[in-house]
Amino acid sequence: xxxxxxxxxxxxENSHLTQRQLAEYLGLRQQTYSRYERGELIPSLDSMAALxxxxxxxxxxxxxxxxxxxxx
Length: 72
Description:
This protein is mainly α. Helix content is about 60%, strand content about 0%.
């Protein structure tokens, strides 16, 4: 599992959210979001930015460029 799939799943589970809830926030179908977490589909830059905003982190953290979850 790559960093992106690992981290978006971890953040969602730690927030006690369902895939459906995240998909609705992003304006996606639940099946599409599920494919993000399984690594079958790479989220668009807009979706990654929205996820970073939602979790108050950075896209760099989501994709594994940094291990620091706090925004700079």
